[in-house]
From TrEMBL:
Stretches that traverse the bilayer: 190-212
Identification of the protein by name: Metal-dependent hydrolase
Keywords for the protein's UniProt record, in alphabetical order: Membrane, Transmembrane, Transmembrane helix
PANTHER family: METAL-DEPENDENT HYDROLASE (PTHR39456:SF1)
Organism of origin: Pseudomonas segetis
Superkingdom: Bacteria
Amino acid sequence: MQPSNHSAIASFPVRRMDFNFAQSRKYWFADDPFMSHFMSNLSSLFPYGEQFFVDSVRAWRQHVNDPQLQKDISAFIGQEAMHSKEHKAYNNYAAEHGIDLQRLELRVKALLEWSKHWSSKKQQLASTCALEHFTATMAEQLLKREDLTTQMNDPKLYQLWMWHAIEENEHKAVAYDTYKAIGGGYFTRIWAMVIVTISFLWVVGGFQLHLMRKDGQLFNWRSWGKGLSILLGPRHGFLTRLIKPYLAYYRPDFHPLQYDTETLVQHWRKRLGLATAEQV
Ligand SMILES: [Fe+2]
Ligand SMILES: [Fe+2]
């Protein structure tokens, strides 16, 4: 949630998007199987993952009294629903290249449904806060790392990921503020982060092996080497750089807006020609 002195509208807009991926290439990231599959891997998490975020915030919204937060919850739901829809469109299109992301989507759905059976509504909201911290910090990296994003050689997929990255930063505090507003505590928040981290690494690691194997790339060591150095390189690795903001989440006084990305987001909104809340 960005600071706003205009109480009648949400702090950020819901933008209607409708991408067409018909011209998209199979290896659209750095002409490389590993990195292209890694992004598809993340994309397979979104259709049901973002629905889980929406459901877990919606389940508590009647307990939120702050009118500004109510507006922002509505905009959050709208943005996440649009992300689900557009990633679903990409995932369906990936099948044209023989990449079966629908099967992975269904595994995510089954995992989330199973987790709902043994967790409370508050724990589900805490899990959403943890996953929103993942998406916000990964998105921040994407907005900052032109050395990586210039390797996206498909204009539609570039726009999809950068638009999503902007909006993840615009709404990054909504689930967290909702959790605080309903009296969510430190222990549940941290315990959820531990569970979410283990699950996320397990799922993404498993999906990456699956996608590489199905594409006949399991023993393409060159692609593994290139991809793993992009993700885990000691100084500039995409995931390596997430360690510091990840650990910050464990501080009792953590809040998502302690990572101020407003200037960065403004820059990218202009660059992609996206409207602000006041313009929509
Ligand atoms: Fe999203
Ligand atoms: Fe999000």
